[in-house]
Amino acid sequence: ESLSEFARRRIGEEALEKLLDPMVAGIFAGDPDRLSLKAAFPAIYYLEKQYGGLIKGLIAKMKEAKKSGKKSSGPAGPGGVLTSFKGGVKDLIDSLSEFLRDSVETGVEILCLNRVEKGWKIKYKKGDEVYEETFEAVVLSTPAYVTAEFLKDLDSELSKLLSEIEYSPISVVALGFEKKGLGHDLDGFGFLIPRSEKRKILGALWDSSVFPNRAPRGKALIRVMIGGARQPELALLPDEELVNIALKELKRIMKIRHYPEKIKVFKHEKGIPHYTVGHAERVERIFKLIGKYPGLYLCNNAYTGVGVNDCTKAAEEVAGRILGG
Do the domain assignments include residue 83? Predict the structure, then answer.
């Protein structure tokens, strides 16, 4: 069942249009008509399945939480506040790289992966040199379409299933403004736009309002999202066109007429995995097939959750299976 079908059945067309559609654009850059409820919002899916309705399920969950002394989480995941790092998510990558410095090879191109008697042999290139090493366990944390290429000679069905996972293209236009005279107090998170509004952007995030250290004192950082499954043809336009779209839409919506002091465009041809209807069943089959190959594991946001929290949880589970033998 798609998210749209579920929403029409449970909360109505207006709620779908005004609430769920823009929310899906913000999380997945996705299309609610094609997005799988079960795969994208499993907590909501199982809440209805277990309790027969959302309200019944929420009440039951609140009672269970009260009885156990724990805080109840929302239907879409654990409650909490937005969290980031002083230097952005890059801080997380840098910290992990530093922590694993002595045991991680970077700047490496994997040439092939082969099954051998004692595990898995990887041929890789670093600089002009080609190396081969054998490992007891290999975790493929590459995007699904890259993993599909690695595994096409090992298992054609598995490779095909991986290649069928869709990705939404998206570009992010980061704009730095002088806050004084901007004409808007930027008091909030930003905004997401329903597709019925027929705008050329998915929404905008007021980054420096959510995380003040995102911009120097007196400055403001706004990130504008363009493309996604809603308008994929816009996502990979030339930088100049993307900037023009972003500025025109901010002028119309927020009345911002100032030209930004800083501009940077980030393009992602295959940006966010799009969990279309049937994704949960596809992933179940993928995990069943990968289970035929001891020592080979998958871990990426293409399977059971697109966010950092989802990836962290999946990584811990994979690490546990490896250490547990």
Answer: no
CA 153 to chain CA mean position, Å: 28
What residue type is assigned to position 141 of the chain? Answer: S
CATH number of the domain enclosing 30: 1.10.3110.10
Q: Are 232 and 206 within 8 A, CB to CB? A: no
SS3 of residue 36 by DSSP = strand
C-alpha distances in angstroms, 16 versus 19, 74, 100, 168, 299? 6, 18, 45, 20, 32
CATH code of 268's domain: 3.90.660.20
d(CA 251, CA 36): 34
CA distances from 78 to 71, 81, 118, 190 (A): 9, 10, 41, 22
- Give the model confidence (pLDDT) of 251-299 as tens digits: 999 999 889 999 999 999 999 999 999 999 999 999 999 999 999 999 9
Please name the amino acid found at residue 76: A
Question: CA-to-CA distance for 303 and 193, rounded, in angstroms?
Answer: 27
Each as own residue / partner, the long-range contacts of residues 18-25 (CB below 8 Å, 24 or more positions apart, any chain) are 18/194, 21/194, 21/195, 21/196, 22/192, 22/193, 22/194, 22/202, 22/203, 23/192, 25/192, 25/193, 25/195, 25/202, 25/203, 25/225, 25/228, 25/230
Q: How many domains does the chain have?
A: 2
pTM summary value: 0.87
